[in-house]
Design goal:
The complex is a heterodimer.
Chain A: H1 2-20, H2 24-44, H3 48-72, H4 85-108, H5 125-132, H6 137-158
Helix pairs in contact in A: 1-2, 2-3
Chain B: H1 2-8, H2 13-33, H3 37-62, H4 66-96
Classes of the chains: A mainly alpha, B mainly alpha.
Amino acid sequence: MSVFYFVAFLSIFFALMTIFTKNPVHSVLYLVITFFTFTVHYILLNAQFLAVVNFIVYMGAIMVLFLFVLMLLNLNKDTEPLKSNLVKLMGVIAGACLLLTVGGSLRVLEISQPIVMKNPDIGLVGNLGKVLFSDFLLPFEISSILLLTAMVGAVLLAKNEPKKA
Amino acid sequence: METIVENIQGVPLNHYILFCSIIFTIGVIGVLIRRNVIIIMMSIELMLNSVNLLLTAFSAHSGDPAGQVFVFFIMALAAAEVAVGLAIIVMVYRNTRSVDINALNRLRG
C-alpha cells in the first residue's frame, strides 16, 4: 500500500521537473522517468498488458521520437525565450484553480472505499484480447485506418517538396 | 503476483482520482507557461497519461476490462497524434527557424 504513495510522489516530482526544466533535452529525459513510474503504477494495478505497452510504445517509441526531433532541429541548448513572470504566475494560478475545483468536487462524493480487485486477472493479455476481438472489433479496425492515415500525413508533411520554377 | 495484488488492496479510489488530477493539472500548467512547442506537446502527453491511469484504476475497481481496452485505443491515438504533430513542428521550423509558439501567430489572417 505504501508503494503506491511512494511511486505517486516520484511521478509528481518528475512531472514537475519536466515542465520547469529549462533545457528541452533534460525535460524529455524527465518525462521518460515519469512514464516509467506510470509503468510501475500499471504493474501495481496488475494491468500487465498495459504496463508492457506503456513501456514499449511510450518510453520506447514516442519519447525517442521527441528526442530525435529535438536533436534534428538542434535545439539542445537553452535558447528558449521564456515567458514573463506575470504570465507564469497566471498559468500556475489557473492550474491551481482547476485542481481546487476537481479536489473540491471530490470531497462531495464519498466513494472512498479501497480498491478491491474482484478478478485479479482482468488485465492479462488473454483476457484483454478476448474483449478486444469480440466487443471492440470495429473500433480496432478503425484505429488501424487511423494509424495508416497518420503515417501518410506525417510523410506528406515532412517531405521536402521541390520548389516549382 | 499475490504480493502485488495484496499491495494495492487498501488504496482508496479517491487517492487515485486526486493523484491523476494533480498530474493532469501539471500538464495544463506546462501548456500555459512554456513557449517551446515540443514541450507543450510533451505536456499534452502527460495529460493523456494521467487519464489513462485513471481509466485503468476504475477498470480494476469495477472489474470491467472495457476500461483497459479504451486505454489501448488512447495509446494508439497518442502515437498518431505525436507523429503528425512532430511533422508539423518540423515543417514550421523549416519555414520560421524557430519553435517558439509566438511565431505561429501569423496564422491570424
